[in-house]
Design a protein that fits this description.
IolE/XylAMocC-like; TIM Barrel; single chain; Xyl_isomerase-like_TIM-brl; globular; alpha/beta; Xyl_isomerase-like_sf; eight-stranded parallel barrel; 300 residues; 10 strands
Length: 300
């Protein structure tokens, strides 16, 4: 019998319902997402793109509570590598998301670096590699964001390594961690994105365990990934090809990842995020329900 992993709290996110944008005709309505995520057996959710779910705290509190749901985190995209000139615009957006996240009783804000490709056209808009100066901007800007978010809203930021961003591979993730203050900046380890970029999630947890503050659970299809990488396919089109797949069909194996996370001895959220944009609106619910059953078989 699989040992209970009692330090890990499982949830899901709008991403697993094909939601990438606040408003898009190809996405399921937010009411359907909330209904179905509860039906699939999850009790925790993330807010997803700001504006997808209602942004009035009283209304959103009512909507999630009557479905037996709670919010684990909000999410923001930032371009802090561009230096102090972007701070004002960054804080304008982050502040709105953080306020709603705090109002929903959550304690985490997931911070994703901006893409160096356009997320809709896949056009390359910035060099994939940062300069030394830009790495400095990224590290200091993230620390500043962490301090202000904590002081203003009481939230902990967790930075999400992501394909087609400047924090992606093992080399870049370790450089970022080594450049930032552990007292301020921790990671949201996304098992799928890290595998997509060649990283080993178990190794990262064992090496930088004190920096793991949050988990996103997903897997990649190794055959599709090999084709994607071999042909330089951008992340968006790769998702449309099905590069992120339903567990346990892909990599990494999630049982060792969850066991390593449990061994850290701290409470962690593990939020399922199976990128599926765009998708048939009837596809997410059965996948989400099967994934929840699979995770129960892993002990969570």
């Amino acid at each position: 019998m699989t040992a209970a992993l009692d330090r890990i709290r499982v949830g899901s996110a709008p991403d697993s319902w094909g939601v990438w944008f606040p408003d898009d005709p190809r996405q399921v309505p937010w009411e359907r997402f909330l209904d179905e995520v509860a039906e699939a057996g999850y009790s925790w959710i993330e807010l997803g793109p700001y504006g997808y779910l209602p942004t009035d705290p009283a209304r959103l509190t009512d909507e999630v509570a009557r479905r037996g749901l709670k919010v684990s985190a909000g999410t923001v995209f930032t371009s802090l590598h561009r230096g102090p000139s972007v701070w004002e615009a960054t804080w304008d957006h982050v502040g709105r998301v953080a306020a709603l996240t705090r109002a929903m009783g959550a304690e985490h804000l997931v911070v994703i670096p901006s893409f160096w490709r356009d997320d809709k056209t896949a056009e390359i808009i910035e060099p994939p590699e940062l300069t030394t100066e830009q790495w400095g901007h990224l590290a200091r800007g993230t620390e500043r964001l962490a301090r202000v978010v904590k002081d203003t809203y009481g939230l902990d930021i967790v930075v999400h390594p992501h394909a087609d961003t400047h924090i992606d591979s093992e080399e870049h993730v370790e450089r970022f961690l080594d450049a930032t203050d552990p007292a301020l900046v921790n990671l949201c380890l996304d098992t799928g994105h890290y595998a997509y970029c060649g990283g080993d999630s178990v190794k990262l947890i064992r090496t930088y365990g004190e920096r793991i503050g949050y988990l996103h659970l997903k897997q990649v299809d190794p055959d599709i990934l090999a084709d994607v990488l071999g042909n330089g396919v951008p992340f968006g089109p790769a998702v449309q090809r099905g590069v992120m797949c339903e567990p346990p069909a892909g990599v990494p194996d999630l049982e060792p990842v969850l066991a390593a996370a449990q061994d850290l001895g701290v409470d962690l959220f593990a939020i399922v995020e199976q990128d599926m944009y765009p998708c048939d609106p009837d596809a997410p619910l059965p996948i989400a329900a099967r994934t929840r059953r699979f995770l129960r078989s892993c002990g969570v």
